[in-house]
Amino acid sequence: FPSHDTGLMILNVTMKNGIPAAEGERLIHQLIEEVKMSGVTEDEIKMAVKQLTVQLVDGIRTPYGLGILLGAVDAVLGDPLRYEEDVSKYFKVTDTDIRRVARNYLIPNHRSVVTLIPEVRK
Protein backbone atom coordinates (compact mmCIF):
# COMPACT_ATOMS: atom_id res chain seq x y z
CA PHE A 1 0.00 0.00 0.00
CA PRO A 2 1.44 3.40 -0.91
CA SER A 3 2.63 5.59 1.93
CA HIS A 4 4.66 8.72 2.61
CA ASP A 5 6.21 7.11 5.64
CA THR A 6 7.72 3.76 6.52
CA GLY A 7 5.19 1.13 5.56
CA LEU A 8 3.68 -1.77 7.35
CA MET A 9 4.55 -5.30 6.35
CA ILE A 10 1.96 -7.91 7.17
CA LEU A 11 2.67 -11.62 7.14
CA ASN A 12 -0.18 -14.08 7.56
CA VAL A 13 0.32 -17.71 8.45
CA THR A 14 -2.36 -20.35 8.84
CA MET A 15 -1.17 -23.34 10.82
CA LYS A 16 -2.40 -26.87 10.30
CA ASN A 17 -4.30 -28.44 13.17
CA GLY A 18 -2.00 -29.59 15.93
CA ILE A 19 0.95 -27.38 14.94
CA PRO A 20 1.48 -24.57 17.45
CA ALA A 21 1.44 -20.95 16.32
CA ALA A 22 4.87 -20.50 17.91
CA GLU A 23 6.29 -22.86 15.26
CA GLY A 24 4.95 -20.65 12.48
CA GLU A 25 6.41 -17.58 14.16
CA ARG A 26 9.78 -19.34 14.54
CA LEU A 27 9.82 -20.31 10.85
CA ILE A 28 9.00 -16.76 9.73
CA HIS A 29 11.79 -15.38 11.92
CA GLN A 30 14.17 -17.98 10.45
CA LEU A 31 13.19 -17.02 6.89
CA ILE A 32 13.69 -13.31 7.59
CA GLU A 33 17.15 -14.01 9.00
CA GLU A 34 18.02 -16.09 5.91
CA VAL A 35 16.96 -13.22 3.66
CA LYS A 36 19.09 -10.78 5.69
CA MET A 37 22.14 -13.00 5.36
CA SER A 38 21.76 -14.67 1.94
CA GLY A 39 19.27 -12.47 0.11
CA VAL A 40 16.97 -13.78 -2.58
CA THR A 41 17.45 -15.04 -6.10
CA GLU A 42 16.76 -13.12 -9.28
CA ASP A 43 13.98 -15.61 -10.05
CA GLU A 44 12.34 -14.89 -6.67
CA ILE A 45 12.44 -11.16 -7.40
CA LYS A 46 10.95 -11.70 -10.87
CA MET A 47 8.18 -13.86 -9.40
CA ALA A 48 7.36 -11.25 -6.74
CA VAL A 49 7.23 -8.46 -9.34
CA LYS A 50 5.00 -10.60 -11.54
CA GLN A 51 2.64 -11.33 -8.62
CA LEU A 52 2.44 -7.65 -7.63
CA THR A 53 1.79 -6.64 -11.23
CA VAL A 54 -0.93 -9.28 -11.67
CA GLN A 55 -2.56 -8.19 -8.40
CA LEU A 56 -2.58 -4.58 -9.57
CA VAL A 57 -4.00 -5.38 -13.00
CA ASP A 58 -6.58 -7.74 -11.52
CA GLY A 59 -7.61 -5.08 -9.00
CA ILE A 60 -8.32 -2.46 -11.66
CA ARG A 61 -10.28 -4.61 -14.13
CA THR A 62 -13.49 -2.89 -13.13
CA PRO A 63 -14.28 0.83 -12.81
CA TYR A 64 -14.91 0.17 -9.11
CA GLY A 65 -11.45 -1.37 -8.62
CA LEU A 66 -9.76 1.45 -10.52
CA GLY A 67 -11.67 3.99 -8.45
CA ILE A 68 -10.61 2.30 -5.21
CA LEU A 69 -6.95 2.35 -6.28
CA LEU A 70 -6.97 5.95 -7.49
CA GLY A 71 -8.93 7.13 -4.45
CA ALA A 72 -6.63 5.39 -1.98
CA VAL A 73 -3.46 6.67 -3.67
CA ASP A 74 -4.92 10.19 -3.87
CA ALA A 75 -5.99 10.12 -0.21
CA VAL A 76 -2.60 8.90 1.01
CA LEU A 77 -0.20 10.57 -1.40
CA GLY A 78 -2.21 13.47 -2.84
CA ASP A 79 -1.76 12.34 -6.44
CA PRO A 80 -4.02 9.65 -7.91
CA LEU A 81 -1.49 8.74 -10.60
CA ARG A 82 1.36 8.21 -8.15
CA TYR A 83 0.73 4.44 -8.31
CA GLU A 84 2.44 4.45 -11.72
CA GLU A 85 5.67 5.60 -10.08
CA ASP A 86 5.40 2.93 -7.41
CA VAL A 87 4.79 0.19 -9.99
CA SER A 88 7.85 1.25 -12.00
CA LYS A 89 9.94 0.88 -8.82
CA TYR A 90 9.04 -2.82 -8.64
CA PHE A 91 11.12 -3.48 -11.75
CA LYS A 92 14.21 -1.83 -10.24
CA VAL A 93 14.37 -3.82 -6.98
CA THR A 94 17.58 -5.78 -6.46
CA ASP A 95 18.73 -8.43 -4.02
CA THR A 96 20.91 -5.76 -2.37
CA ASP A 97 17.81 -3.60 -1.82
CA ILE A 98 15.94 -6.49 -0.25
CA ARG A 99 18.77 -7.38 2.13
CA ARG A 100 19.26 -3.73 3.12
CA VAL A 101 15.57 -3.24 3.85
CA ALA A 102 15.33 -6.53 5.75
CA ARG A 103 18.35 -5.62 7.89
CA ASN A 104 17.08 -2.09 8.59
CA TYR A 105 13.40 -2.75 9.20
CA LEU A 106 12.69 -6.42 9.89
CA ILE A 107 14.13 -6.50 13.35
CA PRO A 108 12.54 -8.37 16.25
CA ASN A 109 11.86 -5.40 18.55
CA HIS A 110 9.87 -3.64 15.80
CA ARG A 111 7.52 -6.56 15.43
CA SER A 112 3.97 -7.02 16.64
CA VAL A 113 2.60 -10.55 16.66
CA VAL A 114 -1.10 -11.29 16.80
CA THR A 115 -2.10 -14.91 17.26
CA LEU A 116 -5.70 -15.89 16.67
CA ILE A 117 -6.64 -19.33 17.91
CA PRO A 118 -10.14 -20.56 17.06
CA GLU A 119 -12.36 -21.59 19.90
CA VAL A 120 -12.76 -25.34 20.14
CA ARG A 121 -16.44 -26.30 20.05
CA LYS A 122 -17.53 -29.16 22.24
Q: Which structural traits does this protein have?
A:
122 residues; mainly alpha; globular
As a percent range, the share of strand residues is under 5%
If helices are DSSP runs of H or I spanning 4 or more residues, what is the number of helices?
5
Assembly state: single chain
Q: Residue share in helices?
A: 55-70%
Spatial shape? globular
**Distance between the terminal alpha carbons, to the nearest Å?**
41 Å
Q: In sequence order, what are the helices and strands, one letter per element?
A: HHHHH
Average predicted local confidence, pLDDT: 88
Query: What is the number of beta strands?
Result: 0
Task: Supply Rg.
Answer: 18 Å
Biggest pleated-sheet summary? none
Sheet/helix structural class = mainly alpha
Low-confidence stretches: none
Describe this structure in words.
There is one protein chain. This protein is mainly alpha-helical. Helix content is 58%, strand content 0%. It is built from five helices and no strands. The chain has helices spanning 21-38, 42-59, 63-77, 82-90, 95-105. It is globular and about 45 Å long. It starts with 20 loop residues before the first helix and ends in a 17-residue tail after the last helix.
